[in-house]
Amino acid sequence: MYRRAVVAGALALATAGCVDRLHDVAASTPRDLGVRSRYVDGNPMVDARSVLARPEELLTHAASFQSAASALGALKPDATESREFVERTDFVDDGGDAILVIAQRLTAPEVELRLGGVSRTGDHSLRIAVDQAGVRGEIETDDPVVKTLLLRLTDERGPPERVIVTIGGQRAGITV
């Protein structure tokens, strides 16, 4: 019993501040696929590239990036947390093995986005389920705000050609 408490305490200390890692570990992913996520409260993307540029009835949006230059070009200059995440990504076009997917949702202010799971839907296609945490039941608001989840994907089979992101029952499909 004492040993179990020591191990649990050590794990809590070792992972302090790594909330995104805890969600990544819990998410179901194929073994040959690496996923890291970072939740951002707000809109780190320039408005013209974000969910705000989509028709009003489209509440979910996703975009993919294969190079640091294109990803940084889509982010606002003051989006420090998102820019740091991008800078730690070894992009496919820059000689690495990762792509970046940015998933966005217009929703209630108290909602947070969390990685729910990643599954293969074909040889080079992925389905990413994003959970809405923070509220229960049906989510409706008269004044929605942008919530963002950044996802770094590495795949031993090579970069995916198609990604479907599902948030709150709505899907956004992107060709990488």
Main attributes?
176 residues, four-stranded mixed sheet, 8 strands
Can you characterise this structure?
There is one protein chain. A hairpin with a 2-residue loop joins strand 4 and strand 5. The model is unreliable at 4-8, 13-19 and 21-27 (pLDDT under 50). It is globular, with a radius of gyration of 17 Å. The chain is built from four helices and eight strands; from the N terminus they run H-H-E-E-H-H-E-E-E-E-E-E. 20% of the residues lie in helices and 39% in strands. The chain has helices at residues 2-14, 19-26, 68-73, 80-87; strands at 33-41, 60-65, 98-107, 112-122, 125-133, 145-155, 162-167, 170-175. With 176 residues, the chain is of the alpha+beta class.
Helix content: 10-25%
Distance, first to last CA: 49 Å
Strand content: 35-45%
Strand numbers in spatial order across the main sheet: 1-6-3-2
Shape: globular
- Number of domain modules: 1
Which value, in Å, is the CA radius of gyration?
A: 17 Å
The stretches of 5 or more residues where confidence is low (pLDDT under 50) are 4-8, 13-19, 21-27
User: What is the H/E string?
Assistant: HHEEHHEEEEEE
Brief summary:
The protein has 176 residues and is of the alpha+beta class. It is built from four helices and eight strands, in the order H-H-E-E-H-H-E-E-E-E-E-E. The strands form two sheets. It has a four-stranded antiparallel beta sheet. A four-stranded mixed beta sheet has the order 4-5-7-8.
